[in-house]
Amino acid sequence: MQETGSISIHTENIFPIIKKFLYSDHEIFLRELVSNAVDATQKLKSLAQLGEFKGELGELKVRVTVDKEARKITISDHGLGMTAEEIKKYINQIAFSGATEFVEQYKDKDAATKDQIIGQFGLGFYSAFMVAKEVEIFSQSYREGTEAAHWICDGSTSFTLETTEKAERGTDVVLNIAEDSDEFLEPARLRTILTKYCKFLPIPIEFEGEVINQTTPIWTKQPAELTDEDYKKFYQELYPMSMDEPLFWIHLNVDYPFNLTGILYFPKVKDELQFSRNKIQLYSRQVFITDEVKDVVPEFLMLLHGVIDSPDIPLNVSRSFLQADAAVRKINTYITKKVADKLSSLFKQDRPGYEEKWGDIGMFVKYGMLSDEKFYEKAKDFVLLKNVDNKLFTLTEYTEHIQANQQDKDGNTVVLYTNDAEHQHGFVAAAQERGYDVLNFDHILDPHFVGQLEQKLEKTSFKRVDADTLSKLIEKDHTTESVLSEDEQTKLADVYKTAIANEAMHVKVAALSPQDAPVVITQNEFMRRMKDMQRTGGGGGMQMFGAFPESYDVTVNANHPLTQKVLADGNGEKLAKQAFDLALLAQGMLKGEALTAFVKRSTELL
Ligand SMILES: Nc1ncnc2c1ncn2[C@@H]1O[C@H](COP(=O)(O)OP(=O)(O)OP(=O)(O)O)[C@@H](O)[C@H]1O
Fold it and tell me: Pfam families under this entry (predicted)?
């Protein structure tokens, strides 16, 4: 029997159109054909289980071979095969009508969208024509008493179908590679494509006499069957270049209301926010799809590594649709919840272990809290604050820790922090001397995090240790009386103003304790925060603060013994300058010429 015919579709000659549309990702033809072969094999296995196929299953491998001379790539399977009638139905009708529909719907879309949609309309098989000028199918159905069929098509709407001889059950798809697709005749190229897309397919894939895949990757197994070593080994397989072991992992496994399996690893990341993105691989039934998991995984978890496998993610639709897709939103929420639960249980079950990892996971947690309200609600119980003595506290523990000492006269709890304990050492030490605790907030996310905590925590404010004099940072009821008269205070301020001679330094006199420093230089908390935010790119509306020059408050302590000397001494200005320079020195602000002058003056005074 031989039959030639025309495939009944509306658009004439869709081949050139498809080929043109899908220019950027021709390599996926192999993914599509190999997954068809795998599907056919699995269907046969299911039929055997159901007792509908009683013959020998034999060795169920999929073989990919390439013959460079003959310009042919062959994908062979021992799956259920197709009769001539089935080829007409599944290939001529389904595969081709899918292609037609594709052309009609996606004519005007951009390249990225087109790349994504190839499978959507059963375009799988048709993708062969992106690289082949002619495609042949040799197939023998598993059904007894059926004849083998041979189909040839050049991508146009006409085809030839005839009976043939084929010894073994299953299908061979033979591609006659087009001149412009020579690259796919290179075995090395084919191997790369196969390892990229087919590494975890459930049926063995043989290429050049070697099986290139793992048929049961660990995410398809039950967590109870797996040891820590299995998870670590798999991580190493996924990221052979990685030096570090993952910190911990989450095995995802849900089948309702959507289907999702996978393993997410927390890598060691430390500081780099931009580091290792796009490390999560997305699979659909063990076929690799993409490592662009944006929208499927919440933004703050993009730093995680691992695999997600879900047939429910509509991979073939455009980006904007993906964001709006209900299944994707649910998956997103699910992953966030799973991550929060995992952190929570680590925290509860092994506090020391959790604290040890805090340096690596702290950033995730804070980033998550900042970007996701639901995550904040869970994480507020396991987020940790670190003080300058490297002790870690939960939010509740910390409030309890400082409440007695660090309440101001209005009953607000004042949290003191430093963003650079080394640099602000003088301020930190002074605060500690008063029995205050100082937190370390030295990550670039911390200014934002501080802002968030201030909004969320009741009657709590955050002040950097160098934002004001200690008595002003936490204002207590009792005010220290000034030993100076009004006149003396004005005179004192004038002496300092002349000595400092700098517009950016706002001199004021305050009655501090005689034990405090004679002069303290501080930078207003609000202004400094605005500038910090701006530097880290936060808060779009903060732009206007860029126009403000740096300015500092210089607080002169009226009650310090030195003050009397400054007022009495004919040399007052020199002393004032010296005291001011010492304050600058404590802030690490004394540099260059000023530093040289200071050293000279100190020697003179000595
Ligand atoms: N190797 C094969 N063995 C048996 N049947 C096949 C084989 N390849 C394709 N088919 C049949 O042809 C049909 C069309 O294949 P095609 O790849 O175009 O779409 P699909 O596999 O149904 O969907 P998609 O690939 O888009 O997920 C398949 O559904 C299957 O019935």
Answer: HATPase_c_3, HSP90
202 and 226 together in one domain = no
Domain that holds residue 109: 2-211
Q: Among residues 211, 246, 267, which one ends one of the domains?
A: 211
Cα gap 558→562, rounded to integer Å: 9
Neighbours of 358 (CB within 10 A): 17
Q: Which regions of 346-453 does DSSP assign to beta strands (E)?
A: 385-386, 392-393, 413-418, 438-440
| Prediction ipTM score | 0.97
Query: What is the pTM (predicted TM-score) of this model?
Result: 0.77
Task: Tally the domains of the chain.
Answer: 4
Q: What is the CATH number of the domain that holds 593?
A: 1.20.120.790
Asked if residue 416 has its Cβ within 6 Å of ligand 1, the reply is no
Q: Looking at residues 465-484, what average pLDDT do you find?
A: 82
- Calculate the alpha carbon distances from 231 to 166, 254, 597 in Å: 44, 19, 63
Tell me which residue has its CA closest to atom 22 in ligand 1. 122
Per-residue pLDDT tens over the stretch 31-50: 999 999 999 999 999 999 99
Q: Is 90 in the pocket of ligand 1 (CB under 6 A)?
A: yes
Report the distance separating Cα 358 and Cα 365, nearest Å: 9
Considering 293, 328, 349, which residue would you say is the last residue of a domain? 349
228 SS3 class? helix
Ligand 1, atom nearest to 120 Cα: 26
| Maximal CA-CA distance, the chain | 121
Query: Residue 328 domain-assigned?
Result: yes
- Please count the other Cβ atoms lying within 10 Å of the Cβ belonging to residue 409: 11
| Phi, psi for residue 290 in degrees, rounded to 5 | -165, 160
Ligand 1 pocket test: pick from 7, 125, 135, 316 the residue with the most ligand atoms within 8 Å of its Cβ: 125
Q: Show the tokens assigned to 320.
A: 């904007």
Give yes or no: residues 35 and 123 share one domain.
yes
Does 101 contact ligand 1 (Cβ within 6 A)? no
Residues 372-386 pLDDT 10s = 999 999 999 999 999
Contact status, residue 598 vs residue 581, Cβ threshold 8 Å: yes
Radius of gyration of the chain (CA): 36
Tokens matching residue 316: 């073939």
Selection from 83, 78, 85, 66 nearest residue 132 by Cα: 66
Question: Which of 53, 42, 215, 32 shows the shortest CA–CA distance to 125?
Answer: 32
Q: Is residue 197 part of a domain?
A: yes
Please indicate whether residue 92, judged by its CB atom, sits closer than 6 Å to ligand 1.
no
Residue 355 lies in a domain: no
What is the CA(337)–ligand 1 centre distance, in A? 37
- Tokens in use for 25? 């990702």
How many A from CA of 1 to the centre of ligand 1?
Answer: 24
Task: Quote the ligand 1 centre to 124 CA distance (angstroms).
Answer: 7
Of 382, 391, 586, nearest to 469 by C-alpha is 586
Ligand 1: residue whose CA is nearest its atom 25? 124
